[in-house]
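Good morning N.,

You mentioned wanting to compare the apo and holo forms, so I went ahead and generated the holo version with alpha-D-galactopyranose. This is what I fed in:
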Amino acid sequence: MLATRVLRRFREQFQQEPVLVRAPGRVNLIGEHTDYNEGLVLPAAIDREFVFAVAANSGPVTHALASDKQEACSFGLDDLVPGRGWQHYLMGMQHGFHQIGIPFQGLNVVFGSEIPEGAGLSSSAALCCGFGFAMSEALQLNLARLGIAKIAQYAEHTFAGVKCGIMDPYASLFGKSGHAMLLDCRSITHEYVPWMSDDLQLVLVDSRVKHALASTAYNERRLACETAVRTLHTFYAGIKSLRDVTEVMLLERQDTLGEEVFVKARFVVQENRRLQQAVACIRQGDFEGFGRLLNQTHWALSKEYEVSCEELDFLVTIAEEEKGVLGSRMMGGGFGGCTLNLIRRHRVDFFRGLVFEKYVAQFEKEPDFYLVNLADGVSRLTASPIQI
Ligand code: GLA
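and this is what came out, ligand included:
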């Protein structure tokens, strides 16, 4: 078990008793690229997680060990530098804590993970939130979850260079077993939506595509949305984000916006609408209706927002031809990672076999499959009952 391994490694390495914390990855059911536009999203934490063991040491240097990778790193306040490695996310979190007035404190850290990296399951958000929560517990800071989510977003922006929204850290911190969360990224509040679909399974198909340019393209999409808001604001003073924009306004100002910006902004406005329809479907138990909206979102992400890729489109096309699949779409920032598929349980094995065969034949690369369930957000584990 992951927690047992991490705890054992921590005790061997540091001869101390740590705080033990689990931090899940997330899926997003619908509402893509809306979070940084003050829109709505529908994520959920999943049963794949990081486990952190953290304790304060008496010095000014943090010693961290990524137990699965067999990699270690030590850093003090003057060593915090940007980058995309796991150590930079930890540095970003400690920097964020320091920025809000918490003196830098050396920590001993061991962590392990069962969340695949680069698959769009927000392993980086789980990494940041797990470490942030464990740090808060180990130092008895009692930071609010929302505060930790914002520091995680800060770490992504400032240390990893991705201008992401609040969705991923929020989902990792606020998840609830058997529920999705309807998160309003303007008020940054949520309500839980029960996910009652006993005969359905969420299956992620990992294309195993990782595009190097994904973060650049992500930041470019965000810029297009900001351009739309700036332009529309000159016509309608009340507009602060795409959340305030209607399709009529966009159509009225289409020429001024230019085709590229118009299409991107229209996607966001329509995606917020699709999400509201999707939540109504889930609440009524209309999973066929919900599935159709997933596919609409996919093709809009692909053809309009232009964040898909050949492999993801291929996976969705296969899924669309399979009658046990209610819906399928790319998930997350895009340009690779997973598709999210809503499948009748008795068809899951058949679907896996079919997709595997077709994907390998087309791309000479094997996809991965993750069957996921909706789980609780970040929480503390008790170290004592674990037998090691
Ligand atoms: C990434 C970002 C999120 C969100 C999604 C797209 O996962 O981290 O903030 O913008 O892409 O919905």
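Residues 52 and 111 are 4 Å apart (CA to CA).

Happy to go through it together on a call whenever suits you.

Best,
F.
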